[in-house]
Structure formats: structure tokens, C-alpha cells
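Quick illustration for those who missed Monday's session on complexes.
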Amino acid sequence: MANPDSILLVGCGKMGSALMAGWIDRGTSPESIFVVDPAAAALPVGVSGGGSIDDIPQNFLPSVVVLAVKPQVMDAVVAPYVKLVAPETVFLSIAAGRNVASFEALLGADAGIVRAMPNTPAAVGRGITVLFANTLVSAAQRLSCETLLSAVGKVAWIDEEAHMDAVTGVSGSGPAYVFHLVEAMAQAGIAAGLPSDLAMTLARETVAGSGELLAQSDESAATLRENVTSPGGTTAAALDILMADDGLAKLMTAAILRATERSRELAG
Ligand SMILES: NC(=O)c1ccc[n+]([C@@H]2O[C@H](COP(=O)([O-])OP(=O)(O)OC[C@H]3O[C@@H](n4cnc5c(N)ncnc54)[C@H](OP(=O)(O)O)[C@@H]3O)[C@@H](O)[C@H]2O)c1
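Prediction with NAP bound:
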């Protein structure tokens, strides 16, 4: 069942609605989706919904329950969904920092659970989502979850849940590092004498365009870097500083290790 027969989406905010738009774009029948969200605005044509679990029709038996509410309300929201636990139903959480054990505590030891860590470029279909499944999830259910997350970008599986903290440090929080790179480049452009508007436009377009080039190219990041670096030229002069022993790689390693530790601390 690559395309699940029926999807229950619990929480239809920024991520939930981006996911649902991706499913429908990729051919999922709107009639196969039921949304629970007290604040959901107008739903796409054909999608049914309600404000609470009590609004789910008796005959709607979801093959995937997608949990897309904020982590801090997850416990209270998820507990009643224990009544939907069944071998043919997998629970797919996209909540940051909520581990599989916390869902097993809420839904019981018989629940098939997949934990996913998406990132914000999912909003434009360019996310990367990392997935981890407990042992009750079948191969077909893994494929269903993978298909649902592929609607907003690329996917990768991990076999050790402990890696989710480092995943959070690299790809979950990563978009913020790239946005900060834009800020740092703009600030440097101003320091080099450019008007601030122009410095920001140059920094923003350089990062966005380079990201697009990376996405469309088969070359490695190292090769693309070498392609714009002539020996003794301007790029080489800057890279001598950025790639020094105490340069960007050292700073980025310290930052990502700190984010990884923080993810562990927040998980408790
Ligand atoms: N945004 C991202 O880029 C991103 C990236 C990675 C992971 N995530 C994860 O995705 C999840 C959702 O984040 P988000 O940014 O989409 O949050 P959001 O925009 O606040 O969406 C959550 C939605 O759930 C609704 N809700 C609250 N109580 C509910 C209930 N009892 N039953 C059903 N729906 C309920 C909320 O309604 P109200 O507004 O009325 O409370 C809201 O519409 C989070 O767990 C987050 O960690 C998000």
C-alpha cells in the first residue's frame, strides 16, 4: 500500500496543510482524507473534517494517522486516539523531539509508530524528512509513510532512534543556519562598503541561487566550490580564511554538536 487507502490528519496547521496539499497534488483522492483540527480553515474540495475525534465517521478506518499538532499539546491530543490502534493502522508523528517511547506510553505497546523529523523547506516541497519506525510497522506501512512525506521533499530512514538528535542538529535546525549565512554575508557586504539593501539582495540571491544549483547538479558540493575558485583569485583569498583550521567547519561542528546535545536534553 504505497498510497494509503485512508489518511487521518490530526492537526492541519502549517505542516499539516503543506503535507495535505502535497498528497492531493500527487494524486491522493481528497475523499480518502479526514482532518481533525478545531481551527482548520476551509479544507480542499472533497476533504472531510471536524473539530474533534468524535467527528470522525464510524466507518472511517484510517490506514495512516498523521499526528501534526504542536509537541507541547501532543499528550493531551493523542491519548483518545488509542481507540484507533489496530494492526492495519500506523501512527506517523512529525512532532519535533517526541520519541517513539512517548507515543507507546500514550497508545500502548501494540501501536505501530513512525517518528518523522521534517524541516521547514517542506513548505515549498523541498524538505528532507528523516524517519524511524518501531518494530510493529510493516514494510508496506513504511512505504506508505515514505510516500506521504515524499510529497514535501526527500526522505531518509534511520535504524537507530538515537541518531534523531543529530538529525535535528543538521537538517531540522539547519535551515536557520543557512538563513543566518545570508545575514552574515549581508553584514560583511555592508562592512565592505555596499549599501545595506544591495548587500542583502546579493547575499539572499547568492544563497538561494547556489542552493538551486546544488539541487540541480550531480556534482558534489566540493566540486561546485572548486569550480568557482581560481588559484590566487578572490574566492581563494576568502576560502583561505573560511577553510582555515579555526574556520567555518570548526564553528559549524561546535554549533551542530550543541544543537544535538540540546535535542537530547529536551527529550529528557
Ligand atoms: N513548521 C515546521 O516547519 C515544522 C518542521 C518540523 C516539524 N514540525 C512539527 O510539526 C508539528 C506541527 O507544527 P506546525 O508548525 O504545523 O504547527 P501549527 O501551525 O500550530 O499547527 C498545529 C495545528 O494543530 C491544531 N490543533 C490543536 N489542538 C488540536 C487537537 N486537539 N486536534 C487536532 N488539531 C489540533 C492547531 O490548532 P490551534 O492553532 O487552534 O491550536 C493547529 O491548527 C509540530 O509537532 C512540529 O514540531 C513543524
